[in-house]
Write a structure and sequence with these properties.
By secondary structure, the chain is an alpha/beta fold. The protein has one domain (36-241): P-loop containing nucleotide triphosphate hydrolases (Rossmann fold), CATH 3.40.50. Helices cover 42% and strands 15% of the residues. It is built from nine helices and eight strands. The chain has helices spanning 47-58, 65-78, 86-95, 123-133, 136-148, 162-166, 180-189, 196-205, 227-244; strands at residues 36-40, 61-64, 98-103, 106-111, 114-115, 155-159, 172-177, 218-221. The strands form two sheets. A five-stranded parallel beta sheet has the order 2-6-1-7-8. Strand 3 (98-103) and strand 4 (106-111) form a beta hairpin. The relative contact order is 0.21. Bound molecules: 2'-deoxycytidine-5'-monophosphate (DC).
């Protein structure tokens, strides 16, 4: 991926630090009085189900921060970057154009003008993403980009360090968990090759922004919850949230 251009993107009405392109159909940007709900937890703990439900009920933008890390893992693989060499990674990041765009209320990620969203669950991406996400240069690169999304929309953002590092001031934080066996079973059922135990170990033990339960988070253990039970647990939080914000 040597050409650093994004000229095949349909440019739209507004962009700012996040690089986020807002089409005219999206909400007008507002300054940072936007509400952030954070959801953290290990792989296959139910964060995406919960996050999508909350976001759609509230009309907020749902953001999977893991998609950002996956997009970089895809690009690093494509560009044959040696992730064991921090200087090479930094030089590569300095030239990388990562560009989010909302299309039909879903966030798509473009790298150098190409929509990489369809590749984010590739097996190679899944195996590379945790070691890449452990690099401070990579985390710094994404931190400002993730934060600045909140300048434009109310957000439900899920990931590993969203309530602890990206938005530690968020008034609503959720931490979702499930047993390692149950999470491996879920991935296998989805037909996805994903060594969740290894990924969790890497995500929890890295020095930079490890996965932790953020202070003040509501913890939900979904080990014995069906999807509809999880939705119900989320709806209870939603009700509290709405009562508090009346
Ligand atoms: O949520 P996910 O499985 O798509 O995330 C992929 C990887 O990205 C995850 O194993 C670790 C990394 N990640 C991270 O380090 N910090 C985040 N906030 C989100 C994801």
């Amino acid at each position: 991926m040597n050409e650093r251009s994004n000229n095949n993107l349909e440019l739209s009405s507004y962009s700012n630090d996040s690089g986020l392109e807002l089409r005219t159909s999206n909400l007008e940007p507002t300054l940072r009085s936007n509400v952030i709900i954070t959801i953290d937890g290990p792989a296959a703990s139910g964060k995406t189900i919960a996050g999508r439900r909350l976001a759609s009920r509230l009309g907020y933008l749902f953001v999977s921060s893991g998609h950002y890390y996956r997009a970089l893992a895809w690009a690093a693989h494509h560009d044959q970057i040696d992730v064991s060499k921090p200087t090479a990674v930094q030089h590569w990041l300095d030239r990388l154009l990562l560009h989010p765009q909302i299309i039909e209320d879903a966030l798509h990620l473009f790298i150098d003008g190409n929509d990489v969203t369809p590749h984010l669950n590739n097996t190679i991406v899944t195996s590379l993403v945790s070691p890449l996400a452990a690099l401070p240069a990579v985390r710094n690169f994404l931190l400002t980009r993730l934060r600045s999304l909140a300048d434009q929309r109310n957000l439900v953002m899920e990931g590993r360090d969203i309530g602890s590092v990206v938005f530690p001031e968020a008034p609503w934080k959720i931490y979702m968990d499930a047993s390692p066996e149950e999470r491996a079973r879920r991935r296998a059922k989805e037909g996805i090759i994903d060594n969740v135990a290894q990924r969790d170990q890497q995500d929890k033990t890295r020095a930079a922004a490890p996965l932790v339960i953020p202070e003040g988070a509501i913890v939900i253990d979904t080990t014995h919850l069906s999807i509809s039970d999880t939705n119900q647990a989320i709806d209870e939080i939603l009700e509290k949230f709405q009562n508090k914000n009346k």
